[in-house]
């Protein structure tokens, strides 16, 4: 009899702790691609009531997604950048949408104590959605922080306004606040950058998380630091991403970042086909678990999938890669006739894939790209090239790139190589792409006809080769090693000055 009360105590203890205090090997992630309801005219000043009305309309839609995700067992849901009030404001017209978002150290559950930091209806509603559905909720809203002449950088209107990601845990507590560091161009008309990048992390029973926003993914800080120094398991990534083919389509680049950095990556994009905004996904280091890309439908879309809580402990974890090892040791293949062409304003050196199969090298500055390939059939109506780019990209942000790319040209005219193409007919039986990279930050991209990913259909070897030995399930648009040489970025490249 003596054992009965003691095991009863253990049981009570377990019930009191609740299931979420136990470490989980896997968890269920959700991301919602939201068809945001935009302000009719974001340049026109509105009252706080009107601002809240628009935000509530968007949160009504997000609420359905959060409930549905929770019903499907999701532990966390990510919603997009600008998902609550959209974009295109000025500093002044954005102001009524902002709330004072405190440092999470204050230990605050807005759902149960909404007035503690002044009027916070948006934080209260998000906190209650998290609490009532027992799910972590990640959202993007705006923070305002007063300042005055004691701070020489204080803006003329007496406050800073930040593009901010917030996370509420499953009790509704604010556990993370991140101010976007790398603002994209015209965003500087409505937001300030924090003085220093803020590497924000939090831990859960299903792993360590870090977060950053949209354009941040192209830069070293805070994105790379979160992975290489703070060792997060999963990145949370609210975004309002405009697709740019061939290398910067949302699903393509974000899944490549997950693979190159060897982390889970939860990307939630705005759904606005008229502006080429679509593409969300749940990405693991070895490939996409679920993704969505749809320029036809007008509706939002919920993705739910299971992930390892700690991908670095999984048996399928990629070995660390030396991205230049193979390419610097192999003999260069024949350098055929080459020509130049432009991709997203960068001047590439190209060489054509003339034959059904072959070995090709093309070089630019320090970068030589090697390709070994076999097509299923060499078609007369499609042309493919191997391209190399080693240089500073300077349009819509300044960042140094080293890129090796196999891609389909726009037409049979070689001047169209690098143009956006979305369909193809040529399958590849095999390919192996490598480059003499000077950086060890390389993101491997494979994009197939119809703008589709190819999870599980290719792999990266520890010597830096991106290979496939099976016939591609769809024809190939591009196979790319997208390298970022952060050390060569100009200083202060996050303050991308704009001329008004
Ligand atoms: C100016 O701002 C600082 C810190 O933000 C604050 O401590 C101080 O009271 C403010 N001064 C005035 C005159 O408002
Ligand atoms: C969207 O992308 C396609 C192909 O990349 C391009 O032709 C089109 O002009 C873009 N549309 C907008 C609205 O930017
Ligand atoms: C990768 O391999 C090359 C060639 O052997 C070597 O020079 C380089 O130091 C290695 N890079 C890293 C990051 O280990
Ligand atoms: C380009 O082609 C020419 C021959 O036409 C060759 O001599 C040269 O080495 C090639 N350059 C590169 C960078 O591939
Ligand atoms: C490419 O090179 C490899 C090794 O150098 C060789 O075995 C293979 O036959 C070549 N392939 C073609 C199609 O020329």
UniProtKB/TrEMBL annotation:
UniProt KW Hydrolase keyword: yes
Keyword Ion transport: no
InterPro entries in UniProt: Biotinidase-like_euk (IPR012101), Biotinidase/VNN (IPR040154), C-N_Hydrolase (IPR003010), C-N_Hydrolase_sf (IPR036526), Vanin_C (IPR043957)
SUPFAM superfamilies: Carbon-nitrogen hydrolase (SSF56317)
Keywords on record: Glycoprotein, Hydrolase, Signal
Residue span(s) of domain CN hydrolase: 32-309
Residues of the signal peptide: 1-23
PANTHER family for this protein: BIOTINIDASE-RELATED (PTHR10609), CN HYDROLASE DOMAIN-CONTAINING PROTEIN-RELATED (PTHR10609:SF27)
Protein family: Belongs to the carbon-nitrogen hydrolase superfamily. BTD/VNN family.
Protein name in the entry: CN hydrolase domain-containing protein
Organism lineage string: Eukaryota, Metazoa, Chordata, Craniata, Vertebrata
């Amino acid at each position: 009899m003596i054992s009965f009360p003691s095991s009863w105590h253990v049981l009570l203890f377990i019930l009191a702790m609740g299931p979420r205090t136990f470490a989980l090997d896997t968890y269920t992630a959700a991301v919602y691609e939201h068809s945001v309801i935009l302000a009719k005219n974001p340049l026109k000043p509105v009252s706080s009531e009107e601002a809240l009305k628009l935000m509530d309309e968007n949160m009504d839609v997000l609420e359905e997604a959060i409930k549905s995700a929770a019903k499907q067992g999701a532990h966390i849901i990510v919603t997009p950048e600008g998902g609550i009030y959209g974009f295109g404001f000025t500093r002044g017209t954005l102001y009524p949408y902002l709330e004072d978002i405190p440092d999470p150290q204050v230990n605050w559950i807005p759902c149960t104590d909404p007035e503690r930091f002044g009027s916070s209806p948006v934080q209260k509603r998000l906190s209650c959605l998290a609490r009532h559905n027992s799910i972590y909720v990640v959202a993007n809203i705006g923070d305002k922080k007063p300042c005055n002449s004691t701070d020489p950088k204080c803006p003329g209107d007496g406050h800073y306004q930040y593009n901010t990601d917030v996370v509420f845990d499953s009790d509704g507590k604010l556990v993370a606040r991140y101010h976007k560091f790398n603002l994209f161009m015209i965003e500087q008309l409505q937001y300030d950058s924090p003085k220093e990048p803020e590497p924000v992390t939090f831990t859960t029973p299903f792993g360590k998380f870090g977060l950053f926003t949209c354009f941040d993914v192209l830069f070293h800080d805070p994105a790379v630091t979160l992975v290489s120094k703070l060792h997060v398991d999963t990145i949370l990534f609210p975004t309002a991403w405009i697709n740019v083919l061939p290398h910067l389509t949302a699903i393509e680049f974000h899944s490549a970042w997950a693979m190159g950095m060897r982390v889970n990556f939860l990307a939630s994009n705005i759904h606005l086909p008229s502006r080429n905004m679509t593409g969300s996904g749940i990405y693991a280091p070895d490939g996409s678990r679920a993704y969505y890309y749809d320029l036809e439908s007008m509706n939002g879309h919920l993705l739910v999938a299971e992930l390892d809580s700690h991908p670095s402990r999984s048996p399928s974890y990629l070995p660390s890669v030396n991205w230049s090892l193979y390419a610097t040791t192999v003999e260069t293949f024949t350098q055929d006739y080459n020509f130049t062409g432009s991709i997203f304003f960068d001047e590439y050196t190209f060489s054509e894939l003339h034959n059904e199969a072959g070995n090709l090298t093309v070089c630019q500055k320090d970068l030589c790209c090697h390709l070994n390939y076999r097509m299923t059939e060499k078609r007369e109506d499609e042309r493919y090239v191997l391209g190399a780019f080693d240089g500073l990209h300077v349009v819509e942000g300044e960042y140094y790139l080293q890129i090796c790319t196999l891609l389909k040209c726009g037409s049979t005219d070689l001047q169209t190589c690098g143009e956006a193409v979305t369909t193809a007919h040529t399958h590849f039986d095999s390919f192996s792409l490598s480059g003499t990279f000077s950086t060890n930050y390389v993101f491997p991209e494979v994009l197939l006809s119809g703008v589709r990913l190819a999870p599980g259909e290719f792999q990266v070897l520890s010597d830096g080769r991106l290979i496939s030995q099976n016939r591609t399930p769809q024809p190939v648009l591009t196979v790319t090693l997208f390298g970022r040489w952060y050390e060569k970025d100009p200083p202060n490249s996050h303050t991308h000055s704009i001329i008004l």
